Amino acid sequence: MRLSLDGFRAGLHPGTTYRVAFSGGLDSAVLLDLMCEVRRVSGIRLSAVHVHHGILPAADAWSRHCAAVAKEYGVALDILRVDGRPGPGESPEAAARNARYRSLEALLNPGDILVTAQHLDDQAETLLLQLLRGAGLAGLAAMPKAAPFGPGILHRPLLRYGRRDILAYARNKSLRWIEDPSNRDEHYDRNFIRRRIMPELAVRWPAVAANLARSAGHCAEAAGLLDKQADILLATATAADEPGSLDVGAVQRLHPDEQRLLLRRWIRKRGLRVPPAKLLDRIRRELIETAAEHAPAIAWTEGTVRRYRHRLYLLPLAADFDASWTAAWSGETPLTLAGNGGLDAALRPGPGIDPDKWRSGCITVRYRRAGDRLEPAGRKGHHELKKLFQEAGLPPWLRDRQPIVCIDGRIAAIGGSRWLASEFAGCPEGVNIVVRWTPEPVMDRRNGSDAATQP
Ligand SMILES: Nc1ncnc2c1ncn2[C@@H]1O[C@H](COP(=O)(O)OP(=O)(O)OP(=O)(O)O)[C@@H](O)[C@H]1O
Fold it and tell me: How far does residue 21's CA lie from ligand 1's centre (Å)?
């Protein structure tokens, strides 16, 4: 499809803040130029961002090139320095991409739109790569045109246009761009497909890229419908008194295909990549179908699924969780707990902490220590936390993770407001300070930040 400003503009909204992900390469050079044209005619707010991966010696020169180009356009450019070195078992491509997307996500404000320059040929290559990996429908859906991304949205406005059209546009406008020499390295699967496979296919099927991209669109539509179906299953199987965990009985009543669908959605909604099919089946067989032995668990690179009594729990790997951590808290703004979600506190009707005691005391947050005891509101006598946790059926591995809010050094509330100390609890019929604990940010990885959907 010929790349014209009018066609490109459709779907971009005046008054919105767009941030162009600018690598300095051909595709994003064209994207930046087009976005500047759109700014000229329709008054969008525009800035650009370049990620400096800090790996290749040429990275400094690329950043300088991007800064010079952005200056010529009169566009503000953020340069983000990230550590793109691969971790154990991670490919260099994936490490750089993950670091890049994490830093871009952190830059966005609510409502901002990050625009990236993937195009039709990228989409076709992604589909082929996914097929060769044996991906399921979600992987074959490849890249969506727009998807939630951190607090904002990731938008790919060039997805309808082919590489040839993009190159023609760049030449026509005499744009300058950087050629990344690694794009020629056929050790990388994507480069191999782009340089060897696609040209061969195009000899026989000239519309191969457009057709593959169309298939990706069909898969995306079907995957969207399945997600809706999975959400219905998830709503019925979620344990009523412990959101985030699944009721094993409800899962057992489902057909195995539905169980797999449900497990994949459950895992993905927590921001984790789904384990391979074999492992998913082990989870079904050993944690759902079989009568539970003592708290069985199955782990993969991203987390662990555990069964405790008649519940299934999902625990993301949280290397940064530290049980000896402690901090002072104003109680006014939300508090982030490293590797353990966050706390917030607000006045609400119902059981909670007496607002006067809350305001006049010094608030700190910590985790469980040996010998901790509590007299729960409405009960007589002090009890060891271990006993209270056991009594509530709290799985052993979650016990050390319950944040403990103290006032003047004495325990006031545990696990949000799940346990309240009688000495600090307000009248349960009144308005009190209710502390809420959100153990993990809930997000759907089938957005822009799922590595499986990005080139
Ligand atoms: N270092 C970077 N800084 C900012 N954005 C980037 C960077 N690398 C890639 N992007 C964005 O992500 C998109 C997809 O990345 P990919 O690695 O596929 O880039 P590419 O195909 O080399 O594109 P380009 O020709 O723009 O470099 C790019 O089009 C660009 O918008």
Answer: 7
> Ligand 1 pocket test: which of 28, 129, 179 has the largest number of ligand atoms within 8 Å of its C-beta?
28
Token pair of 387 as six digits: 């006993």
Minimal-distance CA residue to ligand 1 atom 7: 23
What global pTM score does this model have? 0.74
Comparing C-alpha atoms, which of 141, 311, 138, 118 is closest to residue 214? 141
Q: Which atom of ligand 1 is nearest to the CA of 177?
A: 25
Which ligand 1 atom minimizes the distance to the CA of 180? 22
Read off φ and ψ for residue 276, nearest 5 degrees: -60, 160
165's tokens? 């059209």
C-alpha 73 – ligand 1 centre gap (Å) = 19
Does any ligand 1 atom lie closer than 6 A to the CB of residue 25?
yes
Q: Check pocket membership of 116 for ligand 1, CB cut-off 6 A.
A: yes
CATH, domain 5-118+156-204, list 3.40.50.620, 3.30.830.10, 3.10.310.40, 3.40.50.300: 3.40.50.620
Tell me the CATH architecture of domain 219-316.
Up-down Bundle (1.20)
Indicate which atom in ligand 1 lies nearest the CA of residue 52.
1
The separation between CA 295 and the C-alpha centre of its own chain, rounded to angstroms, equals 28
Q: Which of 420, 422, 413, 416 is nearest to 380 (CA)?
A: 422
Q: Would the CB of 23 count as within 6 Å of ligand 1?
A: yes
Task: Write down the domain spans for the chain.
Answer: 5-118+156-204, 219-316, 342-438
Helix (H) or strand (E) holding 278: helix 277-282
Q: What is the CATH topology of the domain spanning 342-438?
A: Phenylalanyl-tRNA Synthetase; Chain B, domain 3 (3.50.40)
ipTM of model over 0.90:
yes
Q: Give pLDDT tens digits along the chain (455 positions).
A: 789 888 898 888 888 999 999 999 999 999 999 999 999 998 899 999 999 987 778 889 999 999 999 999 999 999 999 887 777 767 777 888 888 998 999 999 999 999 999 999 999 999 999 999 999 898 999 899 999 998 899 999 999 999 999 999 999 999 999 998 888 999 989 999 999 999 999 999 999 999 999 999 999 999 999 999 999 999 999 987 777 899 999 999 999 999 999 999 999 988 888 898 899 999 999 999 887 667 788 998 888 999 988 899 998 876 667 889 999 999 999 998 887 888 999 999 999 999 999 999 999 999 999 999 999 999 989 999 999 999 988 888 788 889 999 999 999 999 999 999 999 999 999 999 999 998 764 443 433 333 333 33
Pocket test for ligand 1, best of 18, 22, 23 (most atoms within 8 A of CB): 23
The residue whose two tokens read 């490490």 is 95
What is the Å distance from ligand 1's center to 316 Cα? 29
